[in-house]
Amino acid sequence: MLKEALRQKIEEHRPRTQKLIKEYGDKVIDEVTIAQTIGGMRGLKCLVTDISYLDPEEGIRYRGYTLPEVFEKLPKPPGAEMPYVEGLFYLLLTGDIPTAKEAEDTFAEFQKRRELPDYVLDVIESFPQGSHPMAIFSSAILALSKESEFNKQYNCGLAKQSYWEPTYDDALNLLAKLPSIGANIYSKLYQDGKRIHPNPDLDLGGNFAHMMGVDKPYDDVSRMYFIIHADHESGNVSAHTGHLVASALSDIYLSTSAMLNGLAGPLHGLANQEVLRWLQDVRKKMDGRVPNETEMKQFVWDTLNSGQVIPGFGHAVLRKTDPRYTVQREFALKHLKDDELFAYVDLLYKVVPDILREQGKAKNPWPNVDSHSGIIQWHYGINNYDFYTVLFGIGRAIGVAANIIWDRALMYPLERPKSLTTAMLETLAGKG
Ligand code: CMX
Fold first, then answer.
1. Nearest to 63 by CA among 101, 18, 100, 96
2. Is 268 designated active site?
3. pLDDT tens-digit profile of 368-413?
4. Which of 59, 75, 140, 157 could be disulfide-bonded to 100 (CB atoms 3.0-4.6 Å)?
């Protein structure tokens, strides 16, 4: 059903892309400066996606909907506060808010593809204790590449217009398994291998909470996490890596594994674990007491003066408080108002922006998604903060997969920007 809805959307969309290329292909949309070329292509308008758009002041919109709208409009599992993650996938793929029936049908599509082959469990088990969960996560997904329907059909001579179809199947097959992969990594690393079997009646978020062995409202925390982390335009490291690798027609398993390796960097998704590490450090120095404002300011300045960044603050594109932070703050105000670590995060929200402004380096002094996510996990007993980026990764895979399916549907080519030498830039500078 989702596949048929998507097919129709793809057929409607293709002429738009073809017209843009054929009739307006030479239209200039941006200039490139030397600073952008050296500086990580910051702000360069050179990617296209319809799945989400990041406004610097407003934050992310999924298919035109703000996060509060997404949470309000998407159908919810019975008794849940947060929506079906499967319904979000429907929205990202089709651009339409699913009806309750469409969300449930998508849940059923995911449900039948959940089972993990034994060899994936063997891959997880084969890692030495002390491995980072993101390394295991990426490898477990890589191992699944042998299941790729796209590869099978491509090797039999698949027509280009049909590339998206087996990619869609691969995407669903992979996304449905991610909660199990995540929960198995958690049990291997932190729970002496004690596994909780999946509950087939539960939706993706609910089943993940069940396999993690955490009671309500952790099911809603899981749904909220996977939804807020799903997509953030195409230029961030994880989304861009997924797109880049898939542009070589590497299957969705190879592409997702690659994008997770980018997510695992401390300037990107790993920042959520860095926040917790930083807070625990402060907590230790405070002997468990919540610092007052003056003491907290001192900790922030000490970190900056030692040449480190304040994790969870700043952003390459955003220039306001991240709405993904706000969604979590509202949840925290409702469910963990008296939590000690929430008091820390609340205090940081008060003191850090002014300090970063005073320091004058960061273009955005406001908190991002990672500033809040760890303490909610901590509150519900997930205290192994190395694991937090896996949660980000399960969410991000949903948006990356939706993008890759559309990349194939619109037959985007191999990505291949041009590089210059420093001498060439110097010559260009001389001409200025
Ligand atoms: N603390 C201290 N300094 C910061 C800072 C922070 N939180 N954020 C930015 N700066 C500094 C940068 O390090 C840079 O310094 P230099 O000129 O010495 O290199 C300067 O301010 C300008 O950086 P910017 O243009 O504002 O930010 P970038 O686009 O280069 O980087 C980001 C963006 C997120 C990597 C950066 O803000 C940062 O390091 N934040 C802390 C880590 C973090 O929270 N990452 C998670 C981001 C969300 C995600 O992708 O998951």
1. 96
2. yes
3. 999 999 999 999 999 999 999 999 999 999 999 999 999 999 999 9
4. 75
